[in-house]
# Entry
Amino acid sequence: MDDPKTNPLLADPTSPNTKEGVCGPLPPIPEEGPHLRPRPEASEDGLQPAHNLLLTTMFTFQFFHWFKPSQAFFADYVLPRYHITNHQLVTEVYAWDTLFQILAAGFTVLVFVGLGLRHALTICAVAAACTVVAVLFFDSLFFLLLSQALWALSFCALFLVPSILYRQMPPAHFQTASSINNCAMLLASLSASMVGFLISESDPSLVCSDSTRSSSYKFTFYISLGSALMSLLVAGAGFYNDWIPAACKHSYEPRDLLFQVRANLKASRLLLWLCVSAVTRGVHTQVTTLWPLISYEISSDCYQQRWNALISFAAYLGAAIAVLIPARYPQKTKQWGRFVVAPGCLLGGLLLLALGAAHSLWQLGIILLVYHSVSELMLTIAS
# Structure
């Protein structure tokens, strides 16, 4: 696997596209132009074994990285443990999420460009484990904020893994890679939700213990920590066996970057999908973070809150099915995908209004199911 002649994912130092083991710049969009060196391409007709290994490794990494049974119970765990209210959680903790994500994204990009994809992926995996540790073993507001900053860093796997796949996969299979990547994350989320629900059903004392004690919901956080460590092991195995190839550093030149930016700004479809992805992802992230607070407002009873996990399961299951549609019909998606933007945004906005007006947990579950499916479908097409 470590022979460049047999593994098309490994850089070839003798290639005209490389210099002293340094990769050429990323392929321009929508055209290469005279000042940009083309990227070495794999076969357009089908996936080679190295591509399949990369997809399998990234799928497994994403599954464990996003497998977090504690997610649906986060608010219920931190409110009594940190002695804060819903209002404080939103205004003093969640309010920092946007800034943390911007800083984390910038840092991840710098690491990816300067040190390579392996370093960036490792940082994301380590951050995922550390964010659970900060919540699980400390009880001050500082560590709760630190956990949010680390969560933002681990969240960068959302765009880092597709960047790795798009850098190594044949362009003809970009839509397949996008669907598989999103499906892995959604399967992890729905599996985690079901695990959390089964735990609460088998032994309610693990969930509904005395709310003044830190033992509430703790077991799900231990599972999340173990899953984060598994994703780190998967990444390490991928590095060791070259399933995740060590990408060499990109050789950027100022003139190349200028022509790249100019080409990108002229690509109207690229700008459309960029805007759709940014807006949809931003709103979607806030919904997935804050909806347990709506559930808590509807019913704060501990035994009712255990249904949060089942609500998450149904929502992610619907979304996991929806994201496979573009992979099943890639040509139709390429031809007609842009026409779903306006209806999708309108439907998403109406669902958000309905979400805020929900008066029962079953209403909340149905609305989240439709909203997750619509949002994830748009994100899969846009990416």
Remarks:
- Residues 166 and 174 are 6 Å apart (CA to CA).
